[in-house]
Each structure stands twice: as structure tokens, then as C-alpha cells.
């Protein structure tokens, strides 16, 4: 099982935001954005910052996918 952030990328498109905008709005590092882009592990602190910045819940930005 793995985590996919496709929901996050679709949400950014809907909000007319790009990764740079997300970085600024959530106050996260470029490294964190890069990890999200590669579907790598990221801390829950970063995920919560994104949720607060976008006014969404965790299930709105990620999903689990069976391998």
C-alpha cells in the first residue's frame, strides 16, 4: 500500500495555485514540496500545515492505493 497526493494536485489546480503558492501559503520547505511530488514520506506536521492553509481535511489531499 502506498500514499498518493493526486488529490492535492487536483485541488491546487481547482484553486489556481501552483507548488510555489502552496509552499508560501503553508509555510513549508521546497524539500517538502519535492517529497510530495515524488510521493515520498512526509511528516504529519507538513500535511497539517497544508490542510490549514487550504482549509481542507487530510482525506482531501491524500489517498492510499493498493499496490
UniProtKB/TrEMBL annotation:
HTH cro/C1-type domain segment(s): 41-61
Protein name (record): Helix-turn-helix transcriptional regulator
A GO term for molecular function: DNA binding
Domain of life where this protein originates: Bacteria
Amino acid at each position: 500500500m502506498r500514499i498518493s497526493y493526486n488529490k492535492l494536485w487536483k485541488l491546487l489546480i481547482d484553486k489556481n495555485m501552483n507548488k510555489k503558492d502552496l509552499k508560501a501559503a503553508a509555510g513549508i520547505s521546497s524539500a517538502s514540496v519535492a517529497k510530495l511530488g515524488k510521493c515520498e514520506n512526509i511528516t504529519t506536521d507538513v500535511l497539517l500545515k497544508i490542510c490549514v492553509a487550504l482549509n481542507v481535511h487530510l482525506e482531501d489531499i491524500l489517498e492510499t492505493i493498493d499496490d
